[in-house]
Write a structure and sequence with these properties.
The chain is an alpha+beta fold. It has a domain of 238 residues: Anthranilate synthase. It is built from nine helices and 22 strands. The strands form two sheets. Strands 1, 2, 3, 7, 8, 9, 10, 11, 12, 18, 21 and 22 form a twelve-stranded antiparallel beta sheet that branches. Strands 4, 5, 6, 13, 14, 15, 16, 17, 19 and 20 form a ten-stranded antiparallel beta sheet that branches. The two termini are 39 Å apart. Bound molecules: ligand ISJ. The ligand C=C(O[C@@H]1C=C(C(=O)O)C=C[C@H]1O)C(=O)O binds next to strand 14 and strand 22. Keywords: Isomerase. Belongs to the isochorismate synthase family. It is an enzyme of class 5 (isomerase).
Length: 398
């Protein structure tokens, strides 16, 4: 977006390292705030203050909105986890070394927030896990192994409840979050509630009528030893079980997008997407939209892909609602931003955590198909908790 009177951004200058410090602290100061950084670290948004709010992504966006939809229609006890979108008072965009804002007053606002906090330490006091998860996954596998089963795939989730010594601050979480590379960094804060995600997975990026999405499904660990790491990656690429898990996602996205694009790019084989603890099968998908669809229409159309829900969708979602111990809230739901010119990026809120006062909840899920093994899926979810556990760990050290 260019700088001019009728454009959203009215202020622009070079960004300084001091700006980040102050902007991070402003995430704590404002009762409602958000942060979004893409996985290539080429675009950052900060959003502060509440002008308007919605529970789900609105159809018509007049300026710019930030927020997240809940994974499904289940009601959560925690308010934020039922979905929250807001139009901020102040938006700051950082890209290509330039800082832009919707307010010409930005420098005086930054000057008013100069006070520096020291990093506040938190300690993990207690972790409570779901003890019967393996048993429930075993039951699910038996169900899927039955040739008469109406379900082919379910992404089954679990949660860990954590008690912390102190309340987390968004600025501290962000500092630790940005140490994790090749993933999106997302924070959504309302009052005492904070949702954080270090997700590798894009649901949708839309700009000028072009759409980009991805299938991310099929997982194996990383290894410190480069030789072993390559072996793990290669066997993932050749694993029939993982290929099936992945293909469900590619087929579903392809079918949905074929109906609404004039041109669609779907590579025939997945490649590897490597994060710190895990590597995934990854198929980037892009196309040109035929109809003038809003970002909201596209999100509603694509979410949840079989990477987070399952196949067939309706039956898998029912299974999730009945057999997961607690509603997912924002876990695995779409989270991101949308602008008035129908540009937007939404990622799925996995590798994520919800914090409220001294309580935190961590989320992880794994795609279960016929032939899956419960212990292996448990180990996979344990790895998927690690980004957020490490983030909490960072906050306990100097
Ligand atoms: C559900 C999660 O991850 C999803 C499930 C994957 C799988 O089953 O292999 C891989 C990536 C994600 O699409 C999670 O990280 O919690």
């Amino acid at each position: 977006m260019k700088k001019s009177d009728n454009q959203f951004f009215k202020f622009e200058r070079e960004v300084t390292s001091q700006d980040y410090q102050v902007l991070n602290q402003m995430l704590d100061y404002f009762r409602v705030s958000a942060f979004f950084e893409n996985n290539t670290a080429t675009q950052i948004f900060y959003a502060f203050g509440l002008k308007n709010s919605w529970q789900t992504l609105p159809q018509k966006v007049n300026t710019m909105v930030f927020g997240a939809n809940a994974f499904d229609g289940q009601h959560s006890k925690e308010e934020l986890m039922n979905g929250f979108w807001f139009e901020p008072e102040i938006v700051v965009s950082i890209a290509n070394g330039r800082l832009q804002s919707n307010t010409v007053e930005l420098d005086s606002i930054l000057a008013n927030h100069q006070q520096t906090h020291d990093i506040k330490r938190v300690q993990i006091k207690k972790i409570i896990s779901e003890t019967d998860w393996i048993q429930r996954v075993d039951d699910l596998i038996k169900n899927l192994n039955d040739v008469k089963s109406p379900i082919d795939k379910v992404v089954f989730g679990r949660q860990e409840m954590i008690e912390l010594s102190n309340q987390n601050r968004a600025s501290c979480l962000l500092q630790a979050l940005r140490m994790q590379h090749n993933v999106y960094h997302v924070i959504l804060k309302r009052e005492n509630e904070i949702f954080v995600s270090a997700t590798p997975e894009r649901l949708v990026f839309v700009s000028q009528g072009e759409i980009q999405t991805a299938a991310v499904a099929g997982t194996t660990p990383r290894d410190r030893d480069p030789h072993r790491d390559r072996e793990l990656g290669n066997s993932l690429l050749h694993s029939l079980k993982n290929q099936r898990e992945h293909q469900f996602v590619v087929d579903s996205i392809k079918m949905k997008l074929e109906a609404i694009t004039t041109q669609l790019n779907v590579p025939s084989n997945p490649i590897l997407l490597q994060n710190k603890q895990v590597q995934h099968l990854y198929t980037p998908i892009s196309g040109t939209l035929s109809a003038n669809m809003s970002v909201k229409d596209l999100v509603d159309n694509l979410h949840p892909t079989p990477a987070l829900g399952g196949v067939p969708q309706k039956e898998a979602l029912q299974y999730i609602a009945q057999h997961e111990q607690q509603p997912r809230g924002l876990f695995a739901g779409p989270i991101g931003y949308v602008t008035a010119d129908n540009t937007g990026e939404l990622v799925v809120g996995i590798r994520s955590m919800y914090c409220e006062q001294t309580r935190a909840r961590l989320f992880a899920g794994a795609g279960i198909v016929a032939g899956s093994e419960a212990q292996q899926e448990y180990d996979e979810t344990a790895l998927k908790f690690k980004p957020m556990l490490q983030l909490l760990g960072e906050l306990t050290h100097d």
